[in-house]
Every structure is written in C-alpha cells, then in structure tokens.
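Input structure tokens:
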C-alpha cells in the first residue's frame, strides 16, 4: 500500500535477488546424494567518507558509513545482509551520550530513500514544493539544513528485499516478508548494529513512516522485552496502525468513512471545489472533524434505519465539505470511498488527484472510469528519488554497485504474511497500538511523536489521531502534530521545516 505502491487492486502496500534452492538427485538405486554445501557469502562491504554541512549557522562535520550488516543464526551462519547508510557527527566527546535514530519507510516492501532524501538526511531532494510535476532529469540534491543530524546520529534501514538488502545462505527473501518475520529481522539488525558500532548505551529512537508505523510498534516488545534494548522514543510519520481505519477495508466497516472525511475536505479546499468560502483550512477542518465524529458517525451507525430527512441533511453537509454533488453522495449511501473520491473530485476537469497526496493531479485517459489508472503522486515523485539516490551513492559516497537498488518491491507487498496469531476464523484487522501502548507501560521513559498530513487520503491524520487517542498511551507522553501536505508532508517546504524542528525538539526532550 502506502509508501509508494498503489496497484489498481489497491491492495496494501508500496525481491531484488533470486536464490537457487539446494537440489537433490537420486542415484540409480534411489539413494540421496549428500546435500551440497551452500556457497559462502562474500565479505561484507563497507565504505566510509567524510563530509561537512552548514545548519543554522553551525558547521557540522560528519562521517557516512555505507555497509553490509550481516544477520546470523544460532550456529553463526549468515541469514541476511542489510545494506545500511549511517551518519555520525564528528567530534563528539562521548558517542554513547549522543542519540541514534533508526529510520525506515513502509510499504511493506519500501526502502528508506523517501525519508532519507525527503526529510531526515543531510542531503535534500530538489523537488517542487507546490505539488507540480518535477519534469525529467537531470535532478538535483541540495544541502539539507533541517537534517535531523543536528540532534541525532542516523541509521537508514532497508529491510530484506528492498534497497540492496537480501537473504543469504539457504534463506530466501520471502522468508522475511511478513509482519512478524520483518519485525524480527529488523530488531536483530538493530541489535547487531549497536553491538558493532558500540551504541548500546546511547539514547535510541525509532522513526517509521506509513507501514513503518506498524513495524515500529512491533519492534517495541522485541527490542525492549526480548533483546533488552531500551528505547527513548518512537517517531511516527503518516503511520498505519490499525488496518480497520484505512480506506481499503470498508465492507461492513464505517469507521474509515468518518475518519477520512477531513482529508477529503482538505483536498477539495486545496483545489477550490468547495461551494462555500472558508477563512482558512484550519477553520474548515475544525468544523469537519466535529461533524465527522458526531452527526456523521451517528448517521452511519443507524445504517438502513436512517430516515430520509436525516439522510438528506447529512448528504447536504457532506456536499458542503467535499465538493461532491448531493446526488452522488446519496447514490453512495453517504459513504464516500477514497478510491472513487480521487477520481470524482476533479472528474469535470478530466483529472484525478493523488491518494497519497491530494494536492497532486494527473490527466486521465478514461474520464468516465470509476477508478483512476494510477496515483499521480507516485508517478511524479518516484523516478526523481531513485535517480538522485543512485548518483549520490556513486559520486558522493564512493559506493560503486551495479546491481539494482529496489526502491519499492511490489513482490514483497503482495506476498506479505499475516501475523501467525491472526490465522483463526475470527481474526480481525491488524492493530498494533496495543504493543506500542504496552511498551510505554513497560518503559515509563518511552515517548511517542506522531505527524500527519492534512492531504493524505491513505493514512488520514484524523484516523491516526483516533487510534492514538484510544490506545491507552499516557497523553503526557504523546505528541500529535499535523501539517499541510500529504503522506510525505515534508515535500511541502513549510511543513518540512516545521516537522523537522518539532522532531528535533522531541529528541531534545521537548
């Protein structure tokens, strides 16, 4: 699903190498040949380089390490190679006192380049802030004075089957594709990294975007309880936390209609499709949130018993907040489906809007289709990230690898395994807020920061607020902030600056 993978099936997202299975041959008499020896993996790669950056008038020297981190089984045999890029500030007297943050995107099946070049790292992608088409190459990187390196060392995590990370030995990439399998491997990567780099006693933060919110929550018990790795904070960007609040699982489930309504309103407001004038976006959203959580949710709850007059009143309000016609809303039984909304909002202009960022638009070949052909946000932002990353690896970091860097693995996404404890007949939606909340009970110093984008029609900011405010996390240790922009709200320059400052404040204890 999200983080950048949107198929026409709209299944949840956005393997780089194939491994031959060990074969067995039968002798003429039927006896098995001895099992062939697995080919020994190559030595882990490691590249180091030194750099400098100006941030807020401060000259920051830092060392970049691009390397393979091997995971090993109980017998010491390598099972997977995580290719990671880490940034450490130079001249730190006691590195143990400096925070270290592990960063990943979502998918599942996404590499970490989106956060790497969009918000967190010392280099920033030069992309239009107004959601316009960035055009063709050459694309450029620029220094990022808002990098989180000013507050924490950085470790970018590409899970198995993404980036250059892959399974080793007798393992296959798909062995790591699943809620539990993925979280287990990333937890072991973190343990191995802090051991090899002597960071066991450093303050530790986890930063996850989109499906990375689920991964972050699943890491909490694995790190804190199983591996005894204490955490200081979770930083969630447009997180998925409960599949029941996403706009894909709507049959018999009214919650996504209510929790996504403010995002529809924000997108309609952005494109000038609302019938009434509003002084600003904040005023609009305050009214829509109140309606969504009260009258609208109550009307949906009544189902087929809702009387005609009340249905008409609710439809009129929905038309006022979404820019869609009352007749369309009534035909939809008051339930505005996100995948139809992105086609319907600008249908009269022959355009669809982005599901991941409702500010983006794209011309449609079929103006009467029910659903759009793709997501304009993904189409307009994907190539620029991968192109600049490949150039950065070779020209800035001296990493000369010719194999493919997998930015987003659709294969991983489509073959993701459900948690083993949800295989029963009555297994419901995956909801990880319980693991996260329990982690804050086990560790009373653990805090949570969550960021949402007003124009994100996938992991709606209002849905995220709903989940976190029903999670049991102590409100004193929970910070929720929302910003203009979509799933990657940091592509909007004012939101980039505000979000970066807010995260730095959070890491610094604010």
């Amino acid at each position: 699903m999200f983080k950048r993978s949107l198929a026409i099936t709209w299944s949840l997202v956005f393997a780089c190498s194939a491994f031959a299975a060990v074969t067995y041959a039968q002798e003429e008499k039927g006896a098995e040949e001895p099992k062939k020896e697995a080919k020994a993996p190559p030595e882990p790669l490691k590249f180091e380089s030194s750099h400098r950056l100006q941030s807020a008038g401060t000259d920051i020297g830092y060392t970049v390490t691009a390397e393979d981190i091997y995971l090993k089984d109980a017998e010491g045999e390598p099972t997977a190679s995580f290719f990671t890029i880490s940034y450490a500030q130079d001249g730190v007297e006691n590195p143990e006192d400096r925070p270290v943050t592990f960063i990943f995107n979502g998918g599942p099946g996404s590499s970490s380049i989106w956060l790497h070049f969009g918000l967190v790292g010392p280099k920033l992608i030069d992309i239009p802030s107004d959601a316009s088409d960035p055009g063709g190459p050459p694309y450029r990187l620029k220094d990022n004075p808002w990098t989180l390196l000013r507050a924490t060392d950085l470790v970018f995590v590409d899970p198995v089957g993404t980036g250059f990370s892959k399974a080793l030995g007798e393992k296959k990439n798909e062995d790591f594709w699943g809620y539990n399998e993925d979280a287990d491997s990333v937890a072991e990567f973190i343990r191995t990294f802090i051991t090899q780099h002597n960071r066991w006693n450093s303050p530790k933060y986890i930063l996850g975007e989109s499906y990375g919110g689920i991964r972050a929550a699943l890491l909490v018990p694995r790190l804190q309880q199983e591996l005894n790795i204490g955490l200081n904070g979770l930083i969630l960007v447009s997180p998925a936390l409960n599949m029941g609040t996403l706009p894909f699982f709507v049959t018999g489930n009214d919650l996504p209609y209510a929790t996504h309504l403010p995002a529809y309103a924000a997108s309609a407001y952005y494109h000038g499709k609302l019938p009434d004038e509003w002084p600003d976006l904040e005023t609009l959203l305050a009214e829509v949130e109140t309606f969504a959580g009260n009258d609208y949710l109550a009307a949906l709850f009544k189902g087929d018993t809702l009387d005609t007059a009340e249905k008409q009143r609710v439809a009129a309000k929905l038309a006022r907040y979404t820019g869609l016609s009352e007749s369309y809303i009534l035909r939809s039984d008051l339930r505005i489906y996100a995948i139809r909304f992105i086609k319907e909002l600008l249908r009269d202009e022959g355009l669809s809007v982005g599901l991941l960022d409702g500010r983006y638009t794209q011309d449609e070949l079929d103006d009467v289709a029910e659903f759009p052909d793709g997501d304009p946000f993904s189409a307009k932002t994907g190539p620029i990230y991968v192109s600049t990353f490949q150039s950065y690896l070779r020209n800035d970091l001296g990493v000369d690898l010719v194999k493919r860097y997998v930015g987003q693995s659709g294969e991983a996404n489509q073959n993701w395994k459900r948690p083993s404890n949800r295989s029963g007949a009555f297994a419901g939606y995956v909801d990880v807020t319980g693991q996260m909340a329990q982690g804050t009970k086990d560790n009373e110093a653990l805090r949570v920061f969550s960021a949402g984008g007003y124009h994100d029609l996938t992991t709606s900011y209002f849905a995220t607020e709903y989940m976190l405010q029903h999670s049991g996390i102590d409100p004193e240790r929970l910070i929720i902030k929302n910003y203009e922009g979509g799933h990657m709200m940091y592509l909007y320059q004012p939101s980039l600056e505000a979000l970066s400052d807010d995260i730095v404040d959070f890491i610094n204890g604010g």
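The first helix runs from residue 113 to 120. Residues 1-31 have pLDDT under 50 and may be disordered.
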